[in-house]
Structure formats: structure tokens, C-alpha cells
Amino acid sequence: MPLTKFTFKNGTYTDKRGEKNTCFTVTKADFDRFNSTVLGLGNVSKEGRYFQALACLFDLQGFTNFCNQIDSHLVIPEFLERYLEWLFRTLAGEFKQGHTSNRVRLWGTLPMFAKFMGDGILFLWDTSIEGVDATDIRNIVVNLNNVRRKYRSEFLSDIREHLAKPPSALRCGVARGQVISVGDGEDFVGSCINLGARLQKLSNLTFAVSKRGFEKPEKRIGNVWDRLVVKKVQVRGVGDDELVYVLKDEWEKLDAEQKKLFKEPSDE
Asked: How far apart are CA 135 and CA 214, in angstroms?
């Protein structure tokens, strides 16, 4: 939402009982300007464009506590500058296969949409692009997990030299589905976006992928797909029996109470 930048003044008025009261005032033009157009979506009555997408929600674990530290206004801007620059650079680097003098070869397509959501980032991939196949889509999952992993192995060690108690992990939720553009195509809605947001908050895990639309490769290929296992879990607002890929080593580290949230796919 763009800044509205209203200028408020202190004022007074006399009510029906003749008593004076304090209030705020704003120009009539500014008052009339406060409507749905401030969202910057354009013509929301325009018919939206549907397409198949992959949604990824990256979320910083412990960001709220980080923001609550003393004089947080002195550290949050520096953290966000370093984190966002690292995130986009690292994500792009995971997709780079090679390059020529004027072209870059990619392991799949780059996201077509990115949105800052406070303590999280939404990325959307258009999986309906001609030429995109199951391998390309699985490669996206591989790259997303690599970014999640490198937050701890690379970014944390660097940022701790500049700031105290940074967010301890990068959580990632991934889902596929149909999305629709809103207004002039500046934003998007879809169940896969909501599902990705739910999955990144799943228990004490840092990586979860909805099984819907994803099939594991038949052969071992030496990346994250070899370490993913399928569990059945209740996802708030989505369903009671969602099949989700999770990292086997992360699931095994959950305590007994946390493991009760998950079932085997064959369980009734």
C-alpha cells in the first residue's frame, strides 16, 4: 500500500450541547483521496488473468523478537538492506547455469513476481510458460531449499559480525496452483499463495512443500528431493489431510508432541 501522506492538524469543534472538543482535521481533497485506489491495484473490476503458478513464501524465524530489541530503528534498516540484497542475489545465483557475453543460462525460470510482506517475501513463478516441464519445476524447489540452507550456513555468520541476535532461520513454504491477477496485474491472489504461507509456519520445520502438483523423481539425483518424505497434516484454512513433503531429518528432530500433528499418508 503506497503512503497516503496526509497532513493532519489539531482542531476544535463545538458539539450539539455547546461543549468544545479537540479533534484532527484534514483537507477535503485528502479525505476524498482515501479510497481503494491507494492500494495501487488499478481497475479491480477488470477481468483477471488466470495462470498456473508456483508460490514460495520465505519468512524470517524470530524477526518479531529481533524488531523488539532496544533501539530497533537503528538495526532493522541495516538488516533489511543486507538481507534483501543477499536473498535476491543468492536466489538468482542458484538459477544461473552459465552465461555468454549477453545471455545467461538458467536452471528453470526466474520468478515473475516478488512482494515484501513485512517479515516475509512472496515469490511467484509462472509455470504455464511454454517449455517449462516437471524437471524445471522441481529445480525451483531445489534452488529454494538451497537458499533456505545458505541463510544459516552463509548469511548468519556474516550478519552476526554487524548485528546482534538476527533472525535464526529462513523458513520456506512452497505450493503450486492457479492464481489470478488483480486490477492492472500489480498483485495476485490464489489458494497456493495462502497454502505456501501456512506451510512455512508448519510446526518447527523450516521447509515444507505441498505434494499437490509435485512428484518425486524415480531415481536418486543427489539433491533435496532425496531427503523429502511425505506426511499428512492439517493445514488451517486448507484441509485436514494435506499431503506435504518435509525434510526427513527435520521431522525426526521434532519432539513427540510435535510429531502427533503429522500422520503417515496411509493412515485413516
From this structure: 10
Parallel, antiparallel, or unpaired: how do β-strands 169-182 and 207-210 relate? parallel
pLDDT along the chain (268 residues), means of 10: 80 90 91 86 86 96 90 91 96 94 91 90 94 92 97 94 92 97 90 96 95 89 92 87 95 94 87
- Nearest C-alpha neighbor of 261 from the set 227, 231, 221, 233: 233
Q: 3-state DSSP call for residue 223?
A: coil
Which set of grid coordinates corresponds to residue 43? 481497475
- Give the long-range contacts of residues 190-197, CB within 8 A, separation 24 or more: 190/53, 190/55, 191/238, 192/53, 192/54, 192/55, 193/55, 193/57, 193/122, 193/124, 194/237, 194/238, 195/55, 195/235, 195/238, 195/242, 196/55, 196/56, 196/57, 196/122, 197/57, 197/120, 197/122, 197/173
Spatial neighbors of 206 by CB under 8 A, at least 6 apart, are: 61, 148, 169, 170, 171, 172, 247, 250
pLDDT at residue 219, as a whole number: 81
In which residue are the cell numbers 518479531 written?
Answer: 64
Q: Which residue has the cell 503458478?
A: 53
Residue closest to 48 by CA, chosen among 209, 171, 252, 185: 185
Do the beta carbons of residue 64 and residue 167 sit within 8 Å? Answer: no
Alpha carbon distance 152, 159 (integer Å): 10
Q: How far apart are CA 150 and CA 140, in angstroms?
A: 15
